[in-house]
Amino acid sequence: MANSPQAKKRIRRNARRTDVNTARVSRIRTFIKAVETAISGGKKADAEKALKDAQPEIARGVAKGVMHKNTAARKMSRLSKRVNALG
Questions:
Q1: Using CA atoms, how far apart are residues 7 and 1, in angstroms rounded to an integer?
Q2: How many Å separate Cα 17 from the centre of its chain?
Protein backbone atom coordinates (compact mmCIF):
# COMPACT_ATOMS: atom_id res chain seq x y z
CA MET A 1 0.00 0.00 0.00
CA ALA A 2 1.21 3.50 -0.80
CA ASN A 3 2.37 5.46 2.20
CA SER A 4 4.03 8.58 0.84
CA PRO A 5 1.86 11.50 -0.28
CA GLN A 6 3.48 11.37 -3.71
CA ALA A 7 2.58 7.69 -4.15
CA LYS A 8 -1.01 8.35 -3.04
CA LYS A 9 -1.28 11.20 -5.55
CA ARG A 10 0.17 8.96 -8.25
CA ILE A 11 -2.54 6.35 -7.57
CA ARG A 12 -5.26 9.01 -7.85
CA ARG A 13 -3.77 10.37 -11.05
CA ASN A 14 -3.40 6.93 -12.59
CA ALA A 15 -7.04 6.14 -11.87
CA ARG A 16 -8.17 9.36 -13.62
CA ARG A 17 -5.95 8.71 -16.63
CA THR A 18 -7.18 5.12 -16.88
CA ASP A 19 -10.78 6.35 -17.10
CA VAL A 20 -9.91 8.88 -19.79
CA ASN A 21 -7.85 6.43 -21.83
CA THR A 22 -10.50 3.71 -21.57
CA ALA A 23 -13.08 6.14 -22.92
CA ARG A 24 -10.75 7.08 -25.80
CA VAL A 25 -10.11 3.47 -26.80
CA SER A 26 -13.82 2.71 -26.58
CA ARG A 27 -14.60 5.69 -28.82
CA ILE A 28 -12.05 4.52 -31.39
CA ARG A 29 -13.53 1.02 -31.38
CA THR A 30 -17.00 2.48 -31.94
CA PHE A 31 -15.81 4.40 -35.01
CA ILE A 32 -14.08 1.29 -36.38
CA LYS A 33 -17.20 -0.77 -35.78
CA ALA A 34 -19.26 1.80 -37.74
CA VAL A 35 -16.94 1.33 -40.73
CA GLU A 36 -17.13 -2.47 -40.48
CA THR A 37 -20.93 -2.36 -40.25
CA ALA A 38 -21.12 -0.20 -43.38
CA ILE A 39 -18.74 -2.56 -45.18
CA SER A 40 -20.78 -5.63 -44.24
CA GLY A 41 -23.90 -3.81 -45.43
CA GLY A 42 -22.26 -3.34 -48.82
CA LYS A 43 -22.91 0.40 -48.92
CA LYS A 44 -19.74 1.99 -50.31
CA ALA A 45 -20.84 5.61 -49.79
CA ASP A 46 -21.67 4.99 -46.13
CA ALA A 47 -18.45 3.03 -45.64
CA GLU A 48 -16.36 5.85 -47.14
CA LYS A 49 -18.03 8.42 -44.90
CA ALA A 50 -17.56 6.24 -41.82
CA LEU A 51 -13.90 5.69 -42.72
CA LYS A 52 -13.40 9.41 -43.21
CA ASP A 53 -14.84 9.97 -39.72
CA ALA A 54 -12.78 7.16 -38.16
CA GLN A 55 -9.36 8.15 -39.50
CA PRO A 56 -8.91 11.34 -37.43
CA GLU A 57 -10.18 9.53 -34.35
CA ILE A 58 -7.59 6.78 -34.81
CA ALA A 59 -4.87 9.37 -35.41
CA ARG A 60 -5.92 11.18 -32.25
CA GLY A 61 -5.55 7.93 -30.34
CA VAL A 62 -1.94 7.75 -31.51
CA ALA A 63 -1.30 11.37 -30.57
CA LYS A 64 -2.75 10.80 -27.09
CA GLY A 65 -0.71 7.65 -26.59
CA VAL A 66 -3.50 5.10 -26.28
CA MET A 67 -2.59 3.32 -29.51
CA HIS A 68 0.73 2.51 -31.17
CA LYS A 69 1.26 4.29 -34.48
CA ASN A 70 1.91 1.07 -36.41
CA THR A 71 -1.28 -0.45 -35.02
CA ALA A 72 -3.23 2.60 -36.14
CA ALA A 73 -1.61 2.55 -39.58
CA ARG A 74 -2.42 -1.15 -39.96
CA LYS A 75 -6.05 -0.66 -38.96
CA MET A 76 -6.52 2.32 -41.29
CA SER A 77 -4.84 0.47 -44.15
CA ARG A 78 -6.96 -2.66 -43.75
CA LEU A 79 -10.19 -0.67 -43.45
CA SER A 80 -9.30 1.42 -46.52
CA LYS A 81 -8.51 -1.71 -48.49
CA ARG A 82 -11.86 -3.26 -47.58
CA VAL A 83 -13.80 -0.07 -48.41
CA ASN A 84 -12.06 0.26 -51.79
CA ALA A 85 -12.85 -3.38 -52.58
CA LEU A 86 -16.58 -2.65 -52.35
CA GLY A 87 -18.16 -2.40 -55.77
A1: 9
A2: 16
Q: Which domain holds residue 14?
A: 5-85
Condensed to tens digits (0 to 9), the pLDDT of residues 55-86 reads: 999 999 999 999 999 999 999 999 999 999 99
Give the closest residue to 28 by CA, choosing from 3, 73, 59. 59
What is the pTM assigned to this prediction?
A: 0.87
Q: How many domains does the chain fold into?
A: 1
**CATH code of residue 17:** 1.20.58.110
3-state class (DSSP) for residue 2: coil
Q: Per residue in 41-50, pLDDT tens? A: 999 999 999 9
